[in-house]
Design goal:
Rossmann fold; alpha/beta; globular
Length: 304
């Protein structure tokens, strides 16, 4: 198949590109910065075509869908800056891609959502993801929606972040009680689900949770990272009220003064206070996933 991929330069996107290439699919990669070094490297590594464009620019999309059999739509953000808001990137971006698919006659559409996405969600992140899901469900396309939990792997910005902090700091930060539940899923399993769904007709019109084998509290996740790296560190609990003040300050300082998305925002705090676990059994069965224990999964790259 010839597959059009948005968000292919991200952590999950690169693994999907790798697995698409390994499975023998042809790839066309949407790129906002087609001449950037990492886009050029990915294109060369996975023998992908590059199509310059942006999901927020509808005119740049339709021409890229000529002779395409399927779309994998991955574009997403975890923090906002300028016009890159949750509503723009997640909701408008999905609408633009769906419209382009309809105009180009591309029927197969795979959508990246997130675990916790639901109607009447508190976090704007989840609200925008839900709106995107509804657009895809109403599209008339042959859609499949995936909702992964926290995704980990060699290049992630979650497990690796706390591993780096633990290398230099005597304490690890924990916002609030640290007892909300997570179900981290390996990036290879997420990518495998997308790639296998392309040729799995049973997945059409379905929404799947993608989650790992272990349901862990945030504190237990930190304990696993410390155990794998053979370190002992204190856990510094930050009261939620103080964390909200810090997040609000960062939301002002980073975009206004530094021109960057903040490393922590109020929406992320809302999600940190919610459980992020699901039921991956349907996905595991259909896509032949064999989840490994979280500690074993992170040991494969943290020890190295």
């Amino acid at each position: 198949m010839k597959v059009f991929v948005t968000g292919g330069s991200g952590f999950v996107g690169r693994e999907i590109l790798r697995q698409l290439h390994a499975a023998g699919h042809s790839i066309r990669l949407l790129a906002r910065h087609p001449n950037s070094k990492h886009v050029q490297q990915d294109a060369a590594r996975f023998n992908a075509e590059i199509h310059p464009g942006n999901v927020l620019d509808p005119a740049s999309l339709t021409t890229g869908l000529a002779n395409i059999d399927a779309i994998i739509h991955l574009v997403g953000i975890i923090s906002e800056i300028g016009s890159n808001t949750y509503e723009n990137v997640h909701t408008r971006g999905a609408q633009n891609m769906v419209t382009a698919a309809q105009q180009a006659g591309v029927k197969r559409f795979l959508q990246m959502s997130a675990l916790g996405t639901r109607p009447k969600a508190i976090a704007r992140y989840h609200q925008s993801k839900w709106a995107a899901e509804e657009i895809v469900r109403r599209s008339g396309l042959d859609w499949t929606i995936f909702r992964p939990s926290i995704i980990y792997g060699p290049d992630d910005q979650f497990v690796n972040l706390f591993a780096r902090i633990s290398k230099f700091s005597p304490a690890l930060p924990v916002i609030g009680s640290g007892q909300s539940k997570l179900q981290p899923v390996p990036v290879a399993d997420v990518a495998s689900s997308f790639v296998r769904a392309l040729k799995e007709p049973q997945s059409i019109g379905q929404t799947y949770d993608l989650a790992g084998r272990d349901v862990l509290s945030f504190v237990e996740v930190l304990d696993a990272i410390l155990a794998v790296t053979n370190r002992k560190r204190l856990k510094l609990h930050i009261p939620m009220g103080l964390a909200r003040f810090q997040a609000a300050a960062l939301e002002f300082i980073f975009p206004k003064l530094l021109g960057k998305a903040p490393p922590l925002n109020c929406d992320q705090l809302i999600m940190l206070g919610e459980d992020n676990s699901g039921n991956p059994e349907r996905a595991n069965a259909l896509f032949h996933l064999r989840p490994t224990p979280f500690r074993e999964g992170i040991a494969s790259y943290l020890k190295a």
